[in-house]
Please model this.
Amino acid sequence: MPRFDLALMLHGQYHDWLVTGLFVSLKLAAVVFVFALPLAIAIALLRLAPLRVLRALGMVYVEGIRNVPLLAHLLFWYFGAPELLPDAVKERLYAGNFEFIAGAIALTLYTAAYMAEDIRSGIRAIPVVQFEAGRALGFGFLATMRRIVLPQALRITVPPLISQTLNLWKDTSIATVIGVAEMMYQAARVESASFRSAEAFAFATAAYLTVSLAITGLAAWYHRRFPVRTI
Amino acid sequence: MIDLIHTYWLYFLVGQYPNGPLGGLALTVLLAALALVLALPIGLLLGLARVSPFRAVRWPVTALVHVVRGIPLLMVIFWAYFFLPGVTGHQTGQFSTMLMALVVFDGVYLAEIVRAGIQGVPRGQFEAARALGLGYPRAMQRVILPQALRSMLPSLVNQFISTIKETSLGYIIGLTEASFIAAQINTQVFTRATQVYLLLGLTYFVLCFGLSRIAHLLERRLARRAPVRAARPSAAVPLANESNA
Amino acid sequence: MIQFDNVNKWYGDYQALADVSETIGKGEVVVVCGPSGSGKSTLIRTINRLEAIDSGTITVEGEDIHRRGLDVNRLRSRIGFVFQQFNLFPHLSVLQNCTLAPVALGGARPAQAHQKAMELLDRVGLAHKAGAWPSELSGGQQQRVAIARALAMEPPMMLFDEPTSALDPEMVGEVLLVMQGLVRDGMTLVVVTHEMGFARDVAHRVLFMDQGRVLERAEPHEFFNHPQHPRAQQFLADIRTPFARA
Model:
C-alpha cells in the first residue's frame, strides 16, 4: 500500500473536490433543518389535535415515514415521483440540479418525522394543567399551544432535537445514492480518480467527526446554560 | 400495480436464487438477523467495558463509541469495502463487507443499550450480591445481567428494525438486497417507477411496523412483571404512638 | 469479634465518621441509634467494606479487613447483611435467592443447599413460599426472606441496616420476631434501627451516634432511663414527645 500522503488532503485538486463536497453536505443539512423543524412542529400538533381524524393523519405520517429506510425515500423522490409529472417538466428537472432538491425533500420529510416525535414527547412532558389553564382563559387549541405550552416544551425538547440534528448530519451521506455531490460522493470520486482511498476517506471521516463533535458540544453547552426548570 | 407484483414478487423476495446468490427481501432479513446476532456479543463486551471500574478499559472503549457514533454508517461501509481486501488478503464479497460494517456499527449502538440496561438495574441489587460475598464477575453474571437483558428486550427489537433499514445501504456497494432488486426491476419495467418504489416502501413498512408492534407488546408485558420496590421510604417511627392522639 | 480503632471517614468536606473506637464481642447484640445523618448506616456498612474508610483500622475476627491481599468476598460471606430495601433478586424465586450464594461460593451441592434453604425459610416462617417470586410477597415477607438468604452462608455475625424502616407498621413485628429468634440462638448482631422497643428489650448494648461520633454507649436500661450526654437526652425527648418543646 502506498504511503499515506497528508498533502493530498490539504491542497490540490482532490482537496478542492473534497471541500466542495463538505460544503454541499453542510448546505443540504442546513436547508433540511430549516424546513424540517416547522414541519415537525406541525406534525406534532397534528398528533395532539382534539380531532381524531387529525391525530390519525399525524400517526400515519410518522409511522409511514419512519418504517421505511431513507435510501428507499431517496429513490422514490428522485426516480419515482417525477414519473407522475408531464414529460416536459420531467426533462427540465433532470437537466437541472434535481438531485439536490429530491434529496432535500426526502431528508426533510424523514427528519421531520423523527423530530415530530421528540417535540410531541416534549409537549406531553408539560403537565396537562398548563394546557387546561390556557383553555380556561379562553385561548383556542393553537393559541394555547403557541403562547403557553410550546415555549415551555421547547427547553425540554432541545437536547433530543440536537441529537436528531446529529442524525441529519450523518444522513446527508446517503444522498450520494441519487448523485448529490456531497462529501461521500466526492470521496468516492477522489478514490476512483487517484486510488488514494485512505486519504480521501480520512478527510471525510475527520470532517464528519468535527461537525458531529461541534453539534454534541452545542448540546452540552445548552444543557449547562439552559437547565430545565420545573415548578 | 397488481400485475407488477404478480410478475416480480419472487424476484423481489429471493433475488436470483436458486439460479444465483440469495437476494431481495430474504437477503435483507437474513443480513439484518445475522448482523444483530453477531453484534450482540460485541455489544455486550463493549457495554460491560463502558461500566467497568477500570479506567484503562473504560476510556478507550468510550472513545471508540464516540468516534463510531460521530460518523455515518456509509463511512464505515466504505472503510470496510476499500480496506478489508487489503487486511484479509483476499477479495471480500459485498455480503461479507456489509456484514462486517453492520456488526461493528451496531455493536457500538448495542453497547449503549447494554450500558443503559446495566445502569438501570437498582444499585441495591449489586450491593446485595456483593454483601453475600459474590465477586464482581459473578455478581454481574448471576444478578445484574439477567435483569438488565430482560429490560433491554424492547430496545433490542427496535435495534433489529433499525438494522433492517440499514441493510438498504448495501445498494450503494451493489449488494442485491431489497432496494437494489427494486431498482433492477425498475430498469426492466422502466415506465412505472412510481409504483415500483411505492411497493418497495410498502414492503419495508409492513416489515418494520409489524416488528415495532411486537416491541410494543414486549414493553407492556415487561412493565407488568417489574420488580417490587419497598413499601415506603425510611421514616423515623415514634417510640409510642399515643402522643399523637 | 468486630473492632473499630480510630476510624474516620469523609465525604469531601463532610465528616461521616469521627474517631470511632468500639469493640463488639462474640454473641453481643448491639443497637446503633441516633438522628438522621448521624453516620449509623455508614458505620455498619464499613464493616463489610460496602463503604471505605479514610483512616483507622477495622478488625473482624482478628483480621484487619483493609490489609493487602485480603479476600474481601470471603470476608463478606462471613458477615450476613440485611438491607433496608430488602434487595431480593427479582429474577430468582425465593428458594433460589437463598441457594445462590451457597452453591456459587460455598461449593455446596444443589441438594444440600436446597435442604438448608428450606430449613431457614421454615425458621422465618416462609417455607410455604419457597417457589414464589419476590414480587408476589409483601414487604415483611421479603425482608424475612432476605434474613434467610443472609443466614444461608452460616455467618458468625449479622448486620442489619434499618431493617424495618421501609415496612408498613403492621409488618414490623414479624421481622423483629425473627431477629429476636436469632438473638436467642446466640448470634452476634449489630442493628441500626429506630425501633426503640427492640433496643430496650433485646439489645445488650446501645450506641448513640450523632454527626459521625459515638456519643454514648450504655446498657439499654441505663441509656433509656438515665442518658448522660445532652444530645442523647434531646434525642430521647424528641422521640417520646415529638410536639413538645422546652
About this structure: The first helix of chain B runs from residue 2 to 14. Residues 2-244 of chain B form a domain with the MetI-like fold fold (CATH 1.10.3720.10). Confidence is low (pLDDT under 50) at residues 228-245 of chain B. The interface with chain C takes residues 122, 124-125, 127-135, 138, 142-143, 146-147, 150, 225-240, 243-244 of chain B (CB under 8 Å).
